[in-house]
């Protein structure tokens, strides 16, 4: 017969085990609940790019690639060293929205041709202006650049009605908004220009700023506009609700400007502003032939040669 003392100890041990098991289960349920709540939180919002920049940073034909810390993220910057017999200065190229700093349509060919002519070229990746007014029209998720994107020119990056696009690395899906409004995007754009400009060593050589499509608009409000000696607008476009700002943007500019117009791109607000004398520089050129679909494509070496010849001619007049 079992001693009463041992029976008591056995019962006590069983009851204690049950209590400990319930406590452990309760703690596990609380942990799972907390974990579930945390997983339901939206991911941190960051810049929206049309291309996988991590992939592009290791798969490009630039001479150098580095990252710029800005706001809450990082921006990829590609650099092409001068390979010409004459040092002509520095050029910053701002690719079209929805493209990337190695895009085959315009940015890469223009970068390499300016480099061969003696320019040191800087090309930053520019995030989408995904502020609420226009975010419903922008694809914001990212896709990896195709393996052969460096060798095969892509077609235009204009999205169709389905939100799909035929440009390289173009993504689909509407998921997030980073910028609060157009003013916050413009502020970011100015900061980006300041960061890139700070990379350029001081010299008496020209510093050229080139903007394509809508980025030809955003670059005009750069707070460091006096840093650039020449501006080039390639097939410039005005973003949504931006036309009323064009007069003030033009009136703040005094650098020589060369505008390449392209048939099918609505650059009428820019040509009207030039015709009204809003731009303050006496050196103003409009080119309607190089970008015509009936003449030469944007990849033409004539763009780089035309820009270089234009600047060289101005330097001789000084």
Residue share in β-strands: 5-15%
CATH class of the largest domain: Alpha Beta
Count of extended strands:
8
What can be said about the biggest beta sheet? Answer: 8 strands, mixed
Helix-strand pattern = HHEEEHEHEHEHEHEH
CATH superfamily of the largest domain: Alpha/Beta hydrolase fold, catalytic domain
Oligomeric state of the chains in view:
single chain
H/I helix tally:
8
In CATH terms, what is the architecture of the largest domain? 3-Layer(aba) Sandwich
CA-based shape: globular
Low-confidence stretches: 31-44, 135-175
Helix content: 25-40%
Class per helix and strand makeup: alpha/beta
Write down the domain tally.
2
Strand order of the largest sheet: 1-2-4-3-5-6-7-8
Say what the CATH topology of the largest domain is.
Answer: Rossmann fold
N- and C-termini, Cα separation = 118 Å
- Rg result: 28 Å
User: Mean pLDDT across all residues, rounded?
Assistant: 76
Overview of this structure, please?
The chain has 318 residues and is of the alpha/beta class. It has 2 domains: 1-41; 53-317, 3-Layer(aba) Sandwich (Rossmann fold), CATH 3.40.50.1820. It contains 8 helices and 8 strands; from the N terminus they run ααβββαβαβαβαβαβα. The longest helix has 36 residues, at 4-39. The protein starts with a helix and ends with a helix. Residues 31-44 and 135-175 have low confidence and may be disordered.
């Amino acid at each position: 017969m079992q001693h009463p003392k041992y029976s008591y100890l056995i019962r006590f041990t069983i009851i204690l085990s049950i209590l400990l098991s319930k406590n452990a289960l309760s703690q596990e349920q609380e942990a799972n609940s907390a974990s579930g709540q945390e997983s339901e939180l939206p991911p941190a919002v960051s810049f929206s790019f049309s291309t996988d920049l991590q992939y592009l940073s290791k798969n490009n034909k630039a001479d150098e690639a580095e990252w710029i810390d800005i706001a809450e993220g990082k921006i990829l910057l590609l650099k092409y060293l001068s390979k010409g017999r004459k040092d002509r200065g520095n050029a910053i190229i701002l690719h079209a929205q929805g493209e990337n700093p190695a895009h085959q349509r315009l940015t890469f060919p223009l970068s390499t041709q300016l480099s061969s002519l003696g320019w040191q070229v800087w090309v930053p990746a520019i995030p989408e202006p995904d502020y609420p007014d226009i975010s419903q029209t922008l694809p914001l998720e990212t896709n990896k650049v195709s393996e052969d994107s460096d060798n095969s020119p892509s077609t235009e990056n204009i999205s169709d009605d389905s939100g799909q696009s035929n440009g390289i690395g173009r993504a689909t899906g509407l998921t997030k908004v980073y910028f609060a409004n157009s003013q916050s995007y413009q502020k970011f754009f100015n900061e980006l220009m300041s960061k890139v400009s700070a990379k350029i060593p001081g010299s008496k050589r020209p510093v050229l700023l080139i903007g394509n499509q809508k980025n030809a608009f955003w670059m005009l409000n750069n707070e460091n506009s006096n840093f650039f000696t020449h501006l080039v607008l390639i097939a410039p476009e005005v973003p949504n609700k931006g036309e009323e700002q064009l007069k003030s943007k033009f009136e703040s500019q005094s650098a020589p400007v060369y505008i390449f117009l392209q048939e099918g791109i609505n650059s009428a607000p820019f040509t009207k502003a030039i015709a009204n004398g809003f731009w303050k520089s006496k050196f103003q050129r409009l080119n309607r032939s190089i970008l015509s679909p009936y003449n030469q494509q944007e990849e033409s070496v004539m763009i780089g040669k035309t820009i270089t010849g234009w600047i060289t001619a101005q330097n001789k007049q000084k």
